[in-house]
Write a structure and sequence with these properties.
6-stranded parallel sheet; mainly beta; 174 residues; single chain; globular; 5-stranded parallel sheet; 13 strands
C-alpha cells in the first residue's frame, strides 16, 4: 500500500512466489532479511523520489537470478545500507553523486558484478569487503584518499582481479 512506512525483518524471507517488487515511495525502512533468499525475484523497482532511508542487513541477499540482471538505482534518500544487503545480488547497482548515503555495511555489495557507485565525503563508514569480488564495478570516490571510518579492506583484496575499479577524486553522473 502507498501508506507503508516500514517493512519488517524477514517479511518475505525465502518467498518463492515473489517475482516483482515495487517499493512504494512512502517506505522509509526495509528490515533485515526482508527479501533474502527470494530466488524467483526478477525485478526490484525503487522509485527515485522514494523516502527510503534504511536498507537492513541482508535485505536482498541471494536474490535476482543472474539471467534476470537489471539496473537497480539506489535512491538518493538512502542513508544506511546494512551488512550483506545486496550480497550475491545480480544487478547493475547505481548510486548517484547526489546520494545522502553515510554508512555501508560489511559485504553490502559483495559479489556485485557491475555498476556505477559514487562515494561522497558524506560516507562516514564502510565495512570490510563492502565491495569485495566486484571486478566490473566502477567506484567513484569524491575524496583523493580513503576516509577515516572506512575499513582498510573496504573494497576487498585491493590490487587483485576481484577488486572493483576505483576512481579517486572523481564523481560520475550515474
Amino acid at each position: 500500500p502507498s501508506s507503508l512506512v516500514y517493512l519488517g525483518d524477514y517479511s518475505f524471507f525465502g518467498c518463492i512466489a515473489i517475482e516483482t517488487i515495487a517499493i512504494p515511495t512512502s517506505l522509509v525502512s526495509i528490515g533485515d532479511y526482508a527479501f533474502s533468499e527470494c530466488r524467483y525475484l526478477r525485478e526490484v523497482v525503487i522509485e527515485f523520489d522514494s523516502a527510503l532511508e534504511y536498507i537492513g542487513i541482508a535485505a536482498f541477499d541471494n536474490t535476482l537470478p543472474y539471467s534476470m540482471k537489471r539496473d537497480v538505482i539506489i535512491p538518493d534518500s538512502v542513508k544506511f545500507i546494512g551488512d550483506y544487503a545486496f550480497n550475491s545480488f545480480y544487478a547493475n547497482i547505481i548510486i548517484s553523486s547526489t546520494s545522502q548515503l553515510t554508512s555501508i555495511g560489511k559485504g553490502a555489495f559483495y559479489g556485485i558484478d557491475s555498476g556505477e557507485i559514487n562515494l561522497t565525503n558524506r560516507v562516514e563508514f564502510i565495512g570490510d569487503s563492502a565491495f569485495g569480488y566486484s571486478s566490473d564495478l566502477n567506484i567513484y570516490v569524491e575524496s583523493e584518499t580513503k576516509l577515516d571510518g572506512w575499513s582498510d579492506n573496504w573494497c576487498g583484496d585491493q590490487g587483485s582481479l576481484t577488486c572493483p575499479k576505483i576512481h579517486w577524486g572523481k564523481q560520475c553522473e550515474a
